[in-house]
Amino acid sequence: MIQKWVISTIAALNANNRPGEVAAAITLGLSLGFIPANNLIWFMLLAITFFLKINFGAQMVVIAIIKIFARFFDPLFDMAGYKILTAEPLQSLFTQWYNMPIVPFSGFNNTVVAGSIAVMLILAVPLWFLFKKLIILYRTKIRDRILSSTIIKKIKNLPVISK
Fold first, then answer.
1. Distance CA 23, CA 16 (A)
2. pLDDT tens-digit map of 98-116
3. Considering the entire predicted model, what is its pTM?
4. What is the dihedral of CA 86, 98, 73, 89, to 10 degrees?
C-alpha cells in the first residue's frame, strides 16, 4: 500500500495535472502530520480531504514522513498553544467550548493540538504557494534531467518498477 502511495506521488509530480492539486495535498499532509492524530479535529480534517480534488497518495506519503519528525516541533507547538489557551480574552469562549457535548473530543484544550492547528492555519496559504512554485520549477527545469539520467533508466528496468 505504501509502495502505491509513493508511486502515486512520483506520478503526480511528473503528470500534467494541476500543480495546485499536488501542492494542496502536500500542504494538507503537512498539517495532518504536525497535528496530533488522537483527536476529532485530525479525523475531521482527514475526512474533508476525501472530498477535495488532491493527490491522496502524495498526502499520505507526506503525513508518514512528517509524523516521524513532528515530535521535534512539539515544543514550538506547545508554546504557541499555551499562549492561545491562556489568553485572557479567549477564556470564556474556551469554557463554553469545553462544556459543549462533542467539542472536548476535538482536543482543542491540548496545548500541542491548539498550537499546531494555529501554526498550520497561519502557514497553510504560504506553504501552498511555495509548493506550487516548487512543483512548477521541478516540472520545467529538473524533471527531464532526472528522467534522462542513467540511474533512473536502470531503476525503470527493474521488474518491480516496470509493473
1. 13
2. 898 888 888 888 999 999 9
3. 0.81
4. -30
